[in-house]
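Sharing a chain and its predicted structure for anyone who wants a worked example. Both blocks are below, sequence first, C-alpha cells second.
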Amino acid sequence: MVAKKPRIVIIGAGMAGLTAANKLYNSTGFKDLFELYVVEGGNRIGGRINTSQFGGDQIEMGATWIHGIVGSPIHKMAQELHSLESDQPWECMDGFLDSPTTMAEGGFELGPSMVDPISTLFKKLMDFSQGKLIEDAVVSSSEEDDYVKLRSRASMASTINGGGFGKLSVGAFLRRGLDAYWASVKDREEIRGCGNWSRKLLEDAIFAMHENTQRTYTSAGDLSTLDFDAEREYIMFPGEEVTIAKGYLSIIEALASVLPAGMIQLGRKVTKIEWQPDCHRSGEVENGYCSRPVKLHFCDGSVMLADHVIVTVSLGVLKAGINGDSGLFNPPLPSFKIQAISRLGFGVVNKLFVQLSPCSDHEEEKLNNKFPFLQMVFHRSDSELRHQKIPWWMRRTASICPIYNNSSVLLSWFAGKEALELEKMKDEEILNGVSVTVKSLLSKSNSHKLCNGNVNPVESSEGSEMKFVKVLKSKWGTDPLFRGSYSYVGVGSSGEDLDSMAKPLPESSKNGANSCPPLQILFAGEATHRTHYSTTHGAYFSGLREANRLLQHYNFVGVSELLQH
C-alpha cells in the first residue's frame, strides 16, 4: 500500500469547527502532512451565529453577547479585527439599559418601591446558586448562613417530594427563597391603586418575570429542570457584557478566511458516521491508499473516508442521533457517551424582532423616542384575573424593548414551549399577539396608573397609536441542523457528563491492548466544555482543545497546550 496523509474531517462550520480548522491549518508543517476538510450541512457558515438585517438595522438571530470581556478570546479577536466599533447602529449597542419601565397587566406602572425588593431578592438567590455571594463577599456571614440553611431546606423538600438526594433544582431553590421572604415580611400594608392585584400577587408576578429572563439565559424551559449544584461550576469572565458592532459573523469570517477555497464544503449534511471501535471490520481502501477507519455518509449518497473526524454538531442533533437503528453513529456510541447526551439539557431559545411603525409619517420620531425598555408583569396563564386576549406565549416573556435607543425594531426573548410555539405561528398571529399585549399595558386610558395611588405618567403611553408592521423570528428548535439553542446541566446530570461529552473515541485501553486506530471520533462544541458550556467562547475553547489533541497525537504540540483548554 502507498503511504497516505492522515485525513481530518470536521463536521460543522460553526465556532467550534472553524476554530479547530483554523488552528490545525495554521500549525507549522500541517499543510504538507495532512488533508483537512470542513463539511457543513447548511448553506452558510456560522452555525448558531447568524448576523442578519431587519428594519434597516443589524441584528443577531443567534449568539448575541460576549459574556465578560476580561480574558475572553472572542473579545480579544473582536478587538484585533476592529469589530467592536461601527459607524452604523447595531443590536444592543447601548448594553443593558438601566432604567426599565415595569408595567403590570391592566396598565399599572410599578415603581421602584414595589419592584426593587423582589429584583434584589431574585438576584441574591441566583448569585448564591452560582457561588457569587460567597466569592464576592457581598453578604454578611449571618446572611450567608441564611442562604445555606435555605438551600438545605429546599434540598430536603426536594428529597421528600421524590426528587432524590442531591437533586435540587434552581427553580425549587428560587421558589423556596421567595417563600422565606414572604415569611419574613408578614403583616404588611396592602397596596392601593392596582386594580385586582394584591401585593403578594404582584410580588409573585415580578419574581416570575425574572424567572422568565433566567430561562432565556440558561435555555432551560423550566427552571425546575436546571441542576442547582452544577450552576457553581459555570464560569463567567469578568467585566462587562458587550455585543459586536460589525456582527458576530465577523469573528466567524475571520476564522474561515485563512482556509483555502474548497476546504469548507457547504450543503454536505452527514447522515451516518461509521467507525471501528473493535477493529473487527475489514479496512476500506481508497484510490490505492491504505484504509481509513471512519466512513462518512452524506445526504446526497456520497461517502468520504477519514482517519479522524471532529464532530461539532449541537447536543440537540446528538440527542436525535442516538435513537435506534436510524442513529447517526454505526455502531452506536458507547453507553457512557449515550448517557451523558441523554442526561444533559438542551433547550430552545428564540428571538422575536418586530418593527414598530407610527400611524402617520410625522409621528415617527415622536414614537420611536418614546418606546421604553418595557418589563412586563403578568397574571398567571390560568388566573381568572388575566386579560383574556393576551396570548399565553406572551405571558412567558419578560420584556420587549428597542434593540438600541430610538430604534424602531423591538426585541423579545422566548424560551421553552413558547419558543417552539412561536416557530409554528404565522406572522400575522404574532403581530396581533404582540400588539394586543403592548396596547393593554401602554394604552392611554391606563397610562397614569401607578400602584399606591401615585401618579407617574408613562412617556410611551400612546398604545392606541402603535402599529407593528413586520416580524422576524429565529427557529432554532425545528431546524434539523440544530434542534435547539444551547445546553444546560439538567437535574440528574452533572459536570462529569460534560467531560464525558468531550472524550474521544474509541476509548484508550489502559493496558494498551486496543490496536484500533486511535482518535477516530473527537467531539467539540459548547456542550463539551465543563465550565463554559452554552457560550461561543466555550465552543471556541473546545475547538482548540480537539485541534491540539490531534496535533499532540502527531507530536506537533506539547501535552500542556492540550490540557489548558
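Comments welcome. The longest helix spans residues 141-160.
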